[in-house]
Amino acid sequence: MSSNLSQIFQQAYRDLRPHLQPPEFEVRFYRFANINNTIRKRSGRILVHVSDLLEGAPEPILYAILHILIAKLHRQPVDTAHAARYRRFVGSQAMTARAQVIRQMRGRKRIHGPKGRHYDLDRLFDELNLRFFHGLMARPQMTWSSGRALRRLGHYDSAHNTIVVSRIFDGPQVPRYAIEYLVYHEMLHLRHPVKLRGSKRLVHPAAFREEEKLFPKHAEAQAFLRRLGSLD
Ligand SMILES: [Zn+2]
């Protein structure tokens, strides 16, 4: 199975970068808690982890995800047909059901859950994932806080891979862009781990702040949040 995956990887690589010799690479299925796929470069080698939830997926789907990952690594445009094919497959009912069962088996206890009265955190995450991250980010546990916390409007708990959003946001008085921005901010914490400079922890390094500005209404949203409390 994995040797097949290697062949598909080579094909996708050649199609995207026809004039280049493919570098050394390792590509394999990997057990994530969710449908997640990662690519990175380590001392000249490309390492690819494809969610084992995609094991047994049809070849065009595996080709599509490898195409997306390679394009992303080299900052090349993602072919929209491949992106759509992959999204359709992952969004299909069978796949969603499978992911859900596996998540329940592997997952952690859900304390308060993602569904609020006004906003569904899972849905917000999925939409932001498509808008800003090619749909490639693995969804952590999304949950509303138990109380109506103001001290912490939102935070990402890396130990439990959970984004917690204060329940005060679950109301009609909260503009959609404000809660979207809050979730987007927490998603960036997944991408930008805390950096150490001496004994100082850089929670929002420069690259984090740059990426934050990609959110269209970030200034308005920040102003809205500042009136309420603070963000971790
Ligand atoms: Zn933060």
Features:
232 residues, alpha/beta, three-stranded mixed sheet, 16% strand, binds zinc ion
Q: How is the biggest beta sheet arranged?
A: 3 strands, mixed
**Mean pLDDT across every amino acid position:** 87
Q: What is the string of SSEs from the N terminus onward?
A: HEEEHHHHEEEHEEHH
Q: Which small-molecule species are bound to the chains here?
A: zinc ion
Rg measurement, Å = 19 Å
Distance between the termini: 42 Å
Number of strands: 8
**Which stretches are poorly predicted, pLDDT < 50 over at least 5 residues?**
none
Structural class: alpha/beta
Helix content: 40-55%
Strand order of the largest sheet: 1-3-2
Q: Which band does the percent of strand residues land in? A: 15-25%
Tell me the overall shape. globular
Q: Helix count, per DSSP?
A: 8
Word description of this protein:
The structure is a single chain. The chain is an alpha/beta fold. The chain is built from 8 helices and 8 strands; from the N terminus they run αβββααααβββαββαα. β5 and β6 form a beta hairpin. α5 crosses α6. The chain starts with a helix and ends with a helix. The relative contact order is 0.09. The mean pLDDT is 87.
Question: Which helices and strands, and how do they pair?
Answer:
Elements: H1 2-16, E1 25-30, E2 37-42, E3 45-51, H2 59-73, H3 80-91, H4 93-106, H5 121-133, E4 141-144, E5 154-157, E6 162-165, H6 176-191, E7 195-197, E8 200-202, H7 206-212, H8 218-228
Helix pairs in contact: 1-2, 2-3, 5-6, 6-8
The structure holds zinc ion.
Zinc ion is lined by residues 185, 189, 203-204, 231-232.
